[in-house]
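dumping this here before i forget
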Amino acid sequence: MLENSCVWVIAGREDTARIEAYQTGGPAVRGAEGLKVRGDQARLHSQWPDLNLSPSFAGCPAPVPSLRWGMSRILLASLMSTLVTAQAQTGFKPPIVSVYFHDWNMVRVQGPQGTDSYDYALAGMITRPASPQKPQKTLQWCWQALKFYGCQLQVVNKDVAPVFLFNSDVREMAYTPDGRWLLGMGNNTLRIWNADEVTGIPKTKVLGTLGVQQIEVSRRHVCITGRDRLNVIYTVLRWPELSVVRQQKVPEFRDASRTTRQGNTTTTQLRFERVNTFTPPSCS
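structure:
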């Protein structure tokens, strides 16, 4: 039997399951990501025999072989809640997770060491495509303390010790379709690593954004949706050279701040009004 604190996520879409930190009770909650339930694995499987069942926390036992792992990306939507939970459970020790490969081989992976002020939590995981002979997964570890945050990427191969990537503070990550390259986008800089030689220094490209919303990779291009203070900045680059094919800046907000002066006191009321909504085109 599982502890009541162990939460299972029944993915709505294999290989694209999104896991949110789920801490409340109740038998099940259905959302866009799938059906989230608490309870015993055997009972859940008897009720829904065809479900793709995956644990949402490392403390859950692994699914039995009759259930497919079928999950290549984990995103924790409530990072601060997860960090608080990690602090209570680990006392700021490095987190440890189990990483499963397609042949059911499992690797125990230790995350980065936190500090007295923050702890790392698993924020994402992606699987290297088109590479059955060299199975590889990339884990994203993140921390957040008040308004500050940071991330690290860790590459896990089945038969090689896990490696933390140099200069890997990124918000979004993706492999190229051929599995040869790993891309990561921070607030303003795009990075690319050779997936077979991840210990090297990544090639970088500064894009002039203040934040990233989305990264999408096609057969020849990587498309970045970022933003600055008022605009969406959409950039298409050719990989692996990271040469810019085109860049588009679309106004999204208007600065409607108001400043008033009374005597020697000046007060500014910040306000922004939306003027446009940008939908990224398909990356081709």
